[in-house]
Design a protein that fits this description.
The chain folds into 2 domains: 293 residues, Alkaline Phosphatase, subunit A; 40 residues. It has 11 helices and 7 strands. Helix 5 links the parallel strand 3 and strand 4. Helix 8 packs antiparallel against helix 9.
Length: 349
């Protein structure tokens, strides 16, 4: 099996992809009048694209495992990210790439393709702007043009547009070939849901997110982009989407694992064998055939190499973490004994 991506044999559907993720954004929460179609801008995108309200998360339904699943296109037993308390140097579940290792991400695969298959004058821009620090942990080994954590969603949207204007707009204005993949992560909806549950405040947070998504896409348009963005996990929308105003049937069994393969498919790239999802080809009018999509089987290998000793690299950090746990336990035990002696002394006298 080859360990480098095969050459592109298929024309990409799009050149620029905007991947927007809204944490805690559910379809129909219990005891709520919330309806996705009642959000004006998302309703417009659903009308012009392909959508489903049945995209399944993985278990456990926590942020860290599911964002990991989205970007790696692999479940927790593959990535090792089994909870929000995941620690890469001392995991409770060791992923397939070893301690501290990760399966390939969307950005890693795109970067490897362009490194070996695309002329040097073709501009590749990769970036991630996010409100929740966990996204930065998942992407910490990726070579991105920017990777910025912001204090809130409003700052995240502003920063995302500033970075695109800085890195990509010059190439577009000069009509130079370019490709971009940007991820924007919004977290305020999830925070509001945890604090206040399903209700008016949650619904208002969803309306704000709807407006922020519109800001992002309007910003793309002002920078001379055409409507070539893919919005997931619920909506895929761009001029090349064949299935307009199409609701994916439940039998399509769309999963969060399918988002990264769909982005790679839209760019005309093949996914590595470690990825477990499949591209949502129905959105491109391909209902019966992958057109040889899986003919080229390849395995992603991190640029550090196959023989990179991940276990040895992180053994020191694991030992330090274990030492910290032992010291904390000893201090806690000593504090308890000291408190008991002081209490006995006070009550004795």
């Amino acid at each position: 099996m080859q360990t480098s991506p095969p050459r592109n044999s298929r024309r990409p559907y799009v050149d620029h992809i905007l991947l927007i993720g809204v944490d805690g954004f559910v379809s129909t929460p219990n005891n709520s009048q919330f309806q996705l179609k009642n959000l004006p801008f998302l309703k417009q995108l659903m009308t012009n694209g392909t959508s489903t309200e049945k995209c399944r998360s993985i278990y456990p339904t926590e942020s860290y495992p599911n964002w990991g699943a989205l970007l790696h296109s692999a479940p927790a037993e593959i990535t090792g990210i089994d909870s929000n308390s995941y620690f890469p140097h001392n995991p409770s579940v060791i992923g397939t790439e070893g301690i501290g290792g990760r399966p390939p991400t969307l950005f890693g695969v795109v970067s490897e393709y362009f490194k070996s298959n695309v002329p040097k004058d073709h501009k590749l821009v990769l970036g991630a702007t996010f409100t929740w620090k966990g996204i930065g942990e998942i992407l910490k080994d990726e070579n991105l043009d920017w990777k910025i954590k912001c204090k809130d969603d409003a700052t995240t949207v502003k920063c995302a547009l500033e970075q695109l204007n800085k890195f990509l707009q010059p190439s577009i204005k000069r009509y130079k070939p370019s490709t971009s993949v940007q991820m924007v992560h919004l977290d305020d909806v999830d925070n509001t849901g945890h604090l206040f549950g399903w209700g008016k405040k949650y619904w208002n947070a969803c309306k704000v997110a709807d407006f922020q998504i519109q800001q992002l896409i309007d910003g793309y348009r002002r920078m001379a982009f055409t409507m070539e963005e893919i919005l997931t996990p619920l909506i895929l929308c761009c001029p090349e989407i064949v299935s307009k105003n199409f609701i994916l049937p439940e039998t399509s069994a769309v999963s969060i694992l399918d988002i990264t393969p769909t982005v790679l498919f839209a760019l005309g790239l093949s996914q590595p064998i470690q990825m477990k999802g499949r591209p949502i080809i129905e959105a491109f009018g391909l209902f019966n055939s992958f057109n040889g999509y899986f003919d080229s089987v390849w395995r992603f290998v991190h640029p550090k190499g196959v023989d990179h000793n991940i276990v040895k690299k992180f053994s020191m950090k694991r030992n330090i973490q274990n030492l910290y746990i032992y010291i904390s336990f000893a201090l806690g035990l000593f504090g308890g004994i000291l408190f008991s002696l002081i209490a006995r002394y006070i009550f004795y006298f």
